Amino acid sequence: MPAVSKANFTTPQEAEAAFYRALAEGNFEALMEVWSEEDEVVCVHPGGPRIVGLAAVHETWRRILSGDTRLEIELSQSVATVSATMAVHCVVERLSVHGQTKRSAVLAATNVFVRGAHGWRMVLHHASPMQDQADFGDLSPRVVH
User: Fold this and answer.
1) What are phi and psi of 88, to 5 degrees?
2) Could you report the per-residue pLDDT of 39-66, keeping only the tens digit for each?
3) Selection from 61, 68, 76 nearest residue 19 by Cα
4) Angstrom distance (rounded) from CA 98 to CA 101
5) What is the largest CA-CA distance in the chain?
6) What b/e readout covers 96-111, taking b as 16+ CB neighbours within 10 angstroms?
7) 99: left (phi > 0), else alpha (psi -120 to 50), else beta?
């Protein structure tokens, strides 16, 4: 496992931007700097099992980023809930392989960050396949009562 991170993310948005930048670049070390160094971390990759614990989370990301494939990631529909010590970001990820325009995956992702001695760090990343929103019609908020 890596030594104590040197990055000090001053906002959860900064930590999330660093996470997606590292993921797109295939930079394992930079990606791991975003994660909390506590053992109470959780990651769920699309269609995969729940990964619990720092060593297990590190190993799954190491395997994912070990190839030469680079991703293009477009984030949208961000909804954030932030308190003094915790932030929950729900986003839509559109992932495609760099250089290929034919296929992309649309994922609903939840990223949870906590603020500690070394700034904001990720404690949960959960991404799940998402149906095309056209399947659901107009999803604008409505008052139902």
Assistant:
1) -120, 120
2) 999 999 999 999 999 999 999 999 999 9
3) 61
4) 8
5) 53
6) eeeeeeeebeebbbeb
7) left
Tell me, what's the pLDDT at 139?
52
> Is-contact 23 69, C-beta < 8 A?
no
CA pseudo-torsion sign 57, 58, 60, 61 = positive
Return d(Cα 84, Cα 11) in angstroms, integer: 10
**Region for residue 13 given its phi and psi (left: phi exceeds 0; alpha: psi -120 to 50; beta: otherwise):** alpha
**Strand ranges (DSSP E) for the chain?**
42-44, 50-52, 71-82, 86-97, 105-116, 119-129
Sign of CA dihedral 50, 73, 21, 69: positive
136: pLDDT strictly greater than 80 = no
CATH numbers and ranges of domains, the chain? 12-131 (3.10.450.50)
User: Which residue, among 1, 46, 11, has the nearest Cα to 119 in the 3D structure?
Assistant: 11
Whether 98 contacts 72, CB under 8 Å? yes
Cα separation, 122 vs 11, whole angstroms: 11
